[in-house]
Design a protein that fits this description.
- There is one protein chain.
- By secondary structure, this protein is an alpha+beta fold.
- The chain folds into 3 domains: 5-59; 66-171, no CATH class; 182-297, Glucose Permease (Domain IIA) (Distorted Sandwich).
- The chain has helices spanning 25-101, 111-114, 131-165, 167-171, and strands at residues 5-11, 18-24, 182-185, 188-191, 198-201, 204-207, 213-215, 220-228, 232-240, 243-253, 261-262, 267-271, 281-288, 291-293.
- The strands form 3 sheets. Strands 3, 6, 7, 8, 9, 10, 11, 12, 13 and 14 form a 10-stranded antiparallel sheet that branches.
- β4 (188-191) and β5 form a beta hairpin.
- α1 packs parallel to α3 (131-165).
- It is rod-shaped and about 140 Å long.
Length: 301
Amino acid sequence: MLFGRFHIVLFREKRGRTRKIQLKGWMLLGLGLCLAMLVVGNLLLLKTYLGSGNLERSLTLTEKSANEQKSQLLNLSQKLVTLQKDVTRIRDFDSKLRVMMNLEQENTMSVASRGGPGQDLAKGYLPLYRQELLARKMNEFLRQLSVESRLEEVRQQEIIQRLRASRDVLDATPSVWPTGGWITSPFGWRVSPFTGKREFHKGMDIAGPPGTPIYAPARGVVAFIERDAAYGLVLNLTHGTGMVTRYAHLQRVANIKPGQVVQRGEVIAYIGDSGRSTGPHLHYEVRISGVPVNPMRYILN
């Protein structure tokens, strides 16, 4: 059969002509096999096409889930960054209290200095391959934060006990802002607005409208009220243990006099522009045994 001959006769209806096609058996078998392969191939393609639709839907769901997970990770990371800042702020507050209470400063490293969840999270970009790394880092951060919070609780208890035993010291420590306004010149080295040379600024300047009230930042005694060529109208308060606060360039002093005791929050003077000044502001100093120190070390609010 494979080597036999087969004839296919084609008739043309209108003209009455015929055409004969001669095929060998193996050729006819090959055509049949090709036709069968085409049918099978089409069926496989159809199955693949239908399967690809299911894969596409599955991929869409997977991508959606991955995007949701990434969004949740980013949201959690932003919260951890905020928490990290809060921990740093609490540690700074702890340090200020220890300075005020003359407690020993502990050489402990904050969670923030060890590195938080990540610095590129604010951009909202999180590559897929970094999600696992970020999750591990957040877990480590939370573990460190848990340890840090327990240690901080112990430290705060120590401070609370010392505060209860030293209430008078706290009341006499200048721990609040003396006036409202904005800092125009902080404590430390600066370029003088008068000479243009580098000089050490012994306090900090808080600018505000003339007549803005100035409040006693702690309980103290009015040491003196006088006029100075540089400081203008100046007021000094003594707070005990060698601590003194100075208020310069005043417009006027409130109804107080030397030797009078003032309480924290009591109005003692008003912002002015007296003396050598570039505008209305309060020059605020904190001195310990005559040595000027940064007032920001004591301000808690």
